[in-house]
Amino acid sequence: MCDRxxxxxxxxxxxxxxxxxxxxxxxxxxxxxxxxxxxxLAGDKGYSANRVRATLLAAGIEDVIARRKDELARxxxxxxFDTGKYKRRNxxxxxxxxxxxxxxxxxxYEKLAVNFRAMIQLAxxxxxxxx
Length: 131
Description:
About 45% of the residues lie in helices and about 5% in strands. The protein is mainly α. It has a two-stranded parallel sheet with strand order 1-2. Helix 2 links the parallel strand 1 (about 40-45) and strand 2.
């Protein structure tokens, strides 16, 4: 999870073969409470699922998630979608790219989850300490 400026807020470590969308509630819960809930959450089409939209609606968070073509075909009319907010989703991709440039994180030298989580937290600290 990151804020609109691309600053990392939280990370949830999961199994390598698990889809990240399953852990959305855990990721939302991992964001520090002092920041308050997000107003909107942007995600790619992989997050376009009824359970995701229901989770966000229950939390009072606007979903900025593009619908898949098969979903649009089943709807009588396409729902309103804020393309301007969706375009700003690239900050998430830039943060992921930055993390992948950290060799120890990208190649996952750490085999234990606790050690790998520590490397991610260290990378987040490095993000905030470098200008």
